[in-house]
UniProtKB/TrEMBL annotation:
UniProt record similarity statement: Belongs to the UPP synthase family.
Enzyme Commission number(s) of this protein: 2.5.1.-
Source species taxonomy: Bacteria, Pseudomonadati, Acidobacteriota, Candidatus Polarisedimenticolia, Candidatus Polarisedimenticolales
CDD domains, A to Z: Cis_IPPS
Annotated residues for binding of substrate: 42-46, 54, 58, 86-88, 90, 92, 205, 211-213
Subunit and interaction comment: Homodimer.
Protein name stated in the entry: Isoprenyl transferase
A Pfam family this chain is assigned to: Prenyltransf
Keywords per UniProt: Magnesium, Metal-binding, Transferase
Binding residues annotated for Mg(2+), in chain numbering: 41, 224
Active-site positions on this chain: 41, 89 (proton acceptor)
Length: 272
């Protein structure tokens, strides 16, 4: 379905005659996913291919974050969740972790005006207490400054693990005195870090890896998964549009049947 008219923001997403414009025109803007989650992978390989230190890949990846967030906001997506730093990432060399945290603080400081200008609400999910006080301070300032924004909700997952999130939700329920017999999936879901968000409709993984890497394990139960060979530092709006086009070509049945399948007659040999 072609879009008859794009909004002012959306019309700036692609140059006339470009591949991006062709992909954008293939999108039905009325059927975009509400929540997109992305596993940002491939920074190290990107740097290694260019014989650069790993930090060069992380720094290059910031541009991809910036473009992905801005494009998501202009498209009118409701929620974007980026997997930035896992609990397992603490095992990396101290110098690399320190560099990553420095880049994170730099990003938050530099992009705050852009977040405000685009009406984006910024939020951190994960075990935030694991982060250094200086990092927590920058993140908190950004969260507070954008708290009243009403556009895209941009979640960034830091010191995050899907299993840890489930454990934290269980701890929260136990502390609250929740009656086990009254516990439902809905009540449990509200105790997750993303408890006030709809579950992801689409999960994107870069760098061609075919695994979910302990990311949003509860929430992605019915998410469509799109894998691209593109390394994260090379990820741009074209790849976002490709993922969205792929999403809209899927049949989402949540374990049921589509109407046509429900009316198929059994083979003659099985009929009386």
């Amino acid at each position: 379905m072609k879009n008859e008219k794009l909004s002012a923001d959306q019309s700036e997403l692609a140059r006339p005659g470009s591949l991006e414009e062709e992909l954008l025109q293939r999108l039905d803007l009325g059927r975009l996913p509400t929540h997109v989650a992305i596993i940002m992978d491939g920074n190290g390989r990107w740097a290694r291919k260019r014989r650069l230190p790993r930090v060069a890949g992380h720094r290059a990846g910031i541009k991809s974050v910036r473009e992905t967030v801005e494009v998501s906001a202009r498209l009118g997506l409701g929620v974007l969740t980026l997997y930035a730093f896992s609990q397992e990432n603490w095992k990396r060399p101290r110098a690399e972790v320190d560099t990553l945290m420095g880049l994170l603080k730099e990003y938050v400081r530099k992009e705050l005006d852009t977040l405000m200008r685009n009406n984006i609400r910024f939020r951190v999910i994960g075990r935030i207490g694991d982060l250094a006080d200086s990092v927590q301070g920058e993140l908190t300032r950004a969260e507070e400054a954008t708290a009243k924004n009403t556009g895209l909700l941009f979640n960034i997952a830091l010191s995050y693990g899907g299993r840890a999130e489930i454990v934290d939700a269980c701890r929260s329920l136990l502390r609250s005195g929740q009656d086990p017999d009254d516990l439902t999936e809905e009540l449990f879901g509200k105790r997750l870090y993303t408890g006030d968000c709809p579950d992801p409709d689409l999960m994107v993984r870069t760098s061609g890896e075919m695994r979910v890497s302990n990311f949003l394990l509860w929430q992605i139960a019915y998410a469509e998964i799109h894998v691209t060979e593109t390394l994260w530092p090379d990820f741009r709006r074209r790849h976002i549009f490709e993922a969205l086009v792929d999403f809209q070509n899927r049949e989402r049945r949540y374990g049921g049947l589509n109407p046509d399948e429900g009316t198929v007659k059994p083979p003659a040999a099985l009929r009386g």
